[in-house]
Input
Amino acid sequence: MTGSTGGGATVIALDVGGAYITAGVTAEGGSLRSTERRPTRIDRGPEAVLDTVLDCAADLAERFGPAAAGLTVPGIVDERTGMAEFAADLGWCRLPVRQRLAERLGIPVALGHDVRSGGMAEARAGAGRGIHYFLYLTVGSGIRATVMLDGQALTGTGGGDGELGHIVVRPGGEPCECGGRGCLEAYASAAGIGLRYAKATGENGVTARLVQERAAGGDQVAAEIWGEAVDTLADALSIAAGLLDPERVVIGGEPTLVGDRYFVPLRAAVAERLCYRPAPAIVPAELGDDAGCRGAAMLAQDLLSREVLP
Ligand SMILES: [Zn+2]
Output
């Protein structure tokens, strides 16, 4: 592994999601000592969301006097230029967010992608510790992935990699938000599972975990939808595992919180598909909702370590 989870200087970290902003400050040794959440409220428009991010960071900076800040956002992110190229969840398009935050705070700022940074946090402090090469997945409103090699996320040409959720697993199937049909996330994301259940039963607002509980309790519709979520994810993972040959697959997100009831059938379904080779270990993420924020803190710490190098 490269990099470090340590670091003497205090940094602040913000992970901006479609629903809420998770913000934290590092403790002695570099771990996060506290996190807090504020609603993102994207209904107010992209500039207002940016103002909330800047205000939240400025508030933390005033309270804790950090040496640097780390910020992670979803969508297409170019870490090198500090641009949020496109974030549908936030309404951001070609926004120089690193520059805007650095101007507001007057300290160095690192910008990262939420899933790649979450993968980095799992690599250094979670389920990827000591693992040279693994695939990290988040299963939430969508399904996103990143390939972690020696503690760093592999980044594609334009920062738009990892969209595992839009692999077509059921051609001509369920419509997807991307405009296509039959995409993985229409079946296996937390949002997709809930939506399919709502369409089948007319009952809105049932979470993926609740669909699983109902399936276990004998609800046939729930069992079919949950089974299809597992099968489609296994289809996609068997493609990814055959292509990339990771040592391990680390998965986080709301549906995975049911533990063995998620992972045992998923491992079996992946192994069945990878009949020609051993399947990688498939394990739960360890850092939960704080992975992105932990990753943001690590980016800020890395920035400081680079600055003090000769
Ligand atoms: Zn799609």
User: Anything to note?
Assistant: Residues 220-244 form the longest helix (25 residues).
